[in-house]
Each structure stands twice: as C-alpha cells, then as structure tokens.
TrEMBL record:
The keyword Plastid does not apply. Residues 1-25 form the signal peptide. SUPFAM superfamilies: FKBP-like, Triger factor/SurA peptide-binding domain-like. One of its GO terms (molecular function) is peptidyl-prolyl cis-trans isomerase activity. Residues 178-205 form a coiled coil. PANTHER family: CHAPERONE SURA. This is Parvulin-like PPIase. The lineage of its organism: Bacteria, Pseudomonadati, Pseudomonadota, Alphaproteobacteria, Sphingomonadales. It comes from the Bacteria. Keywords: Chaperone, Coiled coil, Isomerase, Periplasm, Rotamase, Signal.
Length: 451
C-alpha cells in the first residue's frame, strides 16, 4: 500500500466512507451551486460522474486539468484509503480532488513565474523515497511502485505531479512568506507571562474541520458539513476527514488545533467548546466565513499537573469461554471471577490466583493513564495499588480485569520555554500567510470550467 506521503491528497480516507451529500441534485434544482474553489457544479458535475470522460474539466491560466488527471488522482486516493466507495459518495470526493488539483496547478505556476525551478531530480528522489518506504530499499522498489500505481487505476505521473506541487509550494513559501515572519524574544516572553497569569484555568485540545463559504455556496457547504457530521458519528475517522476536506491551515495535521484557551477561539466556537465533554463532536457551527465541525480531543489546566499523566503499572487478568456456554453459566463464571480478583489484594499474588482459576495474566509496567479509554481512566485513577477494576468484556472476547500495581503521580508542569513559544507563534503566522497567499493566487487566476 502506498505510504501516506502526500498530506492533503493521501492524508486518508482510511476505514471510512464519505458523506453522500445532495450537492449535485441541488445544482440541478437551483440557478447555480458552487463547490470548493467556487467550482460550478451544474457545469462540472456531469463530467465528474462520467469515468470515461477525458475532456478538459478545468483550465487554470491556460493549463488544462483533464478528466484523466482527475480520474487518476481519485483512483489513487480511493486505493490508498482501503477500498471502493459508493458512486454517490464519490461525487464529493471528485469535487474536492478537483479543487486540490486547481490549487496544485496554481502552486506550480507560481513557482515557474518566479523562476523557482522544481528540479526533476528532486521529484524523482521523493518518489523513490515513497517507493522504498513501501517496498523496501531494494533495486526494484520503483518498478514495484510503478506497477502498484497502475494496479490502482492511477499512474506514477499522477503522484509525481503532486510531489512537484508540494515542492513548488515549499519554494514559494521560503521566498515569499517565511523570511518576513519574525517573532521577537520580547513578544514570546510577554505571551509566556500571560500564560503564567492564567495558571490553573482550563485549556482545550480541539480538532476542527472548517469549510469556507460564500453567499452563493452557503447552503451547499452546509449540507456537505451535515453529511460529514453524520459519517463521523457513525465511526468515521476525524483526522482523515479533516485532512481531505478542511480548508483551515490545520488540515495537514488532521485538524488538530492543539491546546487553546477559549479567548483564542471565535465566540461561536468558544460557547460550544466550553460545554463539551472530551470525545464529543459538535457541528456544523456557523462562524464568520463558513462552518466548523469541532471535536474536543482533550482538556487540561494551564501549567498544572494532570492526573491523567500519571504512569500506571497494571496486570491484566482474563478468562475465556467456550463458544457454546449458556447465559446462566457465563454469568456464574463471571461473578466467580470478579469475586476472586477482588480478593487478590496485590499484584504479587495475582499470578498464583490466576493459575488457580485458569486465567491468563498480561503485565504492563508503564502506561500513561490518558492513553486508556476515558471510563478506565477515571476508575484507575481513583484506585489504590492492589485493587482491581470491575470485569469487562463479552462471551466472544472473554472477560478481564485490571489490577493496579503502582501509580506514579505526574511531575508538576514545567510550562513552555520562550523558544518554544517563539516557534509556535512563527508557525501560526506562516500558516496564516500561506493561506492568504494561496487565496491571492486563486483570486488572480483565470479559472474556467468548459461546458
């Protein structure tokens, strides 16, 4: 399977199916509906749904994006995402991929206009790196990669073009954005002082999928957002959706805003986030310029030790059951197992007790509490060494308990350094400038969608 090298395109639809949205149907019922990058869906939609159409789909400053370009890129995306998608769900995928191809074309053209050469050797080198990551550092890795691309219904040229676009964009940012971002030590120190002043207040780690709108695209984008929320609530991968569909700068990291305080969020988001529980999903929320879908990943108190950072030593004791066990016998054995484990009293005695009742023991001597499911976190953090959790599991998977052997409280939070804060501010400003720069490239471009 091709390595997820390309952050936006191959960022993943792994193990998820995309929301089927009524965007195409709306275009037929309304005067006009627009997709990402103001793509007129009534014009482009029929071409997107015809896999045999090899005519131009878009023309960007004279450069043609053909149906073949689109088909190869979509095939690569679907193949690296773990399987086929229903036709109605592919509509949204094709629209987003076309938008990505338009941006990619603008980035390549921008580098060429400024005589920033993307050397073929650089593209081939990165393609070889992808091949070696997937097929090993062997002489035939590239040949195997080429064969795999063809098997996907794509081509080596499609992935190499995307690699060229990413290199071009990096060169543009290095010349036009990064040199003009400066964060002084004094500014970082001031922010550090503000951080110290808020010690003990709550900050929230948020995942966001942001979809921008115009007055013309508002309804279509809203319907798209509703569809994404429905799929996420059915078990879709939030990071994968964020990488593919979010138009915020955090898309490349799966929509992760990291830890922020409420005063750094738009008021519409802050009101929702303050009431959310960890793991909760809310949206779509209308914010200036678009809609946001928000996942509360975590929360903590500023510069305070978090109990969930405690290191735990555990022993898992489990029992399994024959396939034909009756409900009555299952309940009886689970009760007996739980009673036996509650009387162990220490990890030292757990192995002997497990052997006595025919259970299996798996030790784990170093696990951070926050890495466990939330329900187990709260139970284990309230326990004392030697105590065990209630039994959990099923007939099919077996039933297990966790015995707490040791618990090491987390050290007091040391906070961030001035250098770390400087880097954070710098990265944030680079991302904002990069988004504005790409938006300017779009606004200045002549983008046509042949009928």
């Amino acid at each position: 399977m091709i390595h997820n090298y390309c952050t936006r395109l191959l960022g993943g639809l792994a193990a998820l199916s995309l929301a089927a949205t009524p965007v195409i149907a709306q275009a037929q019922a309304a005067e006009e509906t627009f997709g990402p990058t103001n793509i007129p869906i009534s014009v482009v939609g029929p071409k997107l749904n015809d896999p045999n159409n090899r005519a131009p789909v878009a023309v960007v400053n004279g450069s043609v994006i053909t149906g073949t370009d689109l088909a190869h890129r979509v095939a690569l995306l679907v193949a690296t995402s773990g399987g086929e998608l229903p036709e109605e769900e592919l509509q949204l995928v094709r629209l987003q991929v076309l938008s990505n191809l338009i941006d990619e074309t603008l980035q390549i053209q921008g580098a060429e206009a400024q005589e920033l050469e993307v050397e073929t050797a650089m593209v081939e080198g990165r393609y070889a790196e992808v091949a070696q990551r997937n097929f090993g550092a062997t002489a035939d890795a590239i040949d195997k990669m080429n064969e795999q691309m063809l098997a996907f219904g794509s081509s080596a040229a499609s992935l190499k073009r995307q690699i060229r676009g990413e290199i071009a964009w990096q060169l543009l940012l290095r010349r036009n954005v990064i040199p003009f971002i400066n964060v002084s030590v004094e500014e970082a120190q001031e922010q550090l002082a503000q951080l110290e002043a808020t010690r003990g207040s709550t900050e929230y780690r948020i995942g966001e999928i942001y979809l921008s709108t115009t007055p013309e695209t508002r309804q279509a984008v809203y319907q798209t957002a509703v569809g994404i929320v429905e799929r996420l609530r059915q078990g879709g991968n939030f990071q994968a959706y964020a990488r593919q569909f979010s138009q915020a700068s955090t898309a490349t990291v799966g929509g992760d805003l990291d830890f922020v305080q409420l005063n750094r969020l738009p008021p519409e988001l802050a009101r929702e986030v303050e009431q959310m529980q960890v793991g909760e999903l809310v949206g779509p929320i209308e914010v200036p310029g678009g809609f946001s879908i928000v996942l509360l990943i975590d929360k903590r108190q500023v510069l305070m030790a978090d109990p969930r950072d405690s290191m735990l030593s555990l022993k898992q004791v489990s029992i399994s059951f024959p396939p034909d066990i009756s409900d009555e016998e299952f309940t009886s054995r689970v009760n007996a197992f739980g009673e036996a484990m509650s009387q162990v009293g220490s990890c030292e005695l757990a192995d002997a007790k497990a052997a006595e009742i025919g259970a299996q023991v798996v030790p784990n001597n170093s696990i951070r509490a926050r890495s466990l499911p939330p329900q187990l976190q709260s139970i284990l953090l309230e326990m004392q060494p030697g105590q065990s959790t209630p039994g959990f599991g099923s007939k099919e998977d077996g039933v297990r308990v966790l015995i707490l052997c040791d618990k090491q409280a987390p050290p007091a939070a040391s906070g961030k350094t001035v250098a770390q804060i400087q880097q954070e501010i710098e990265n944030e400003r680079i991302e904002k400038r990069a988004n504005a720069y790409l938006r300017d490239l779009r606004n200045d471009a002549d983008i046509q969608f042949p009928g």
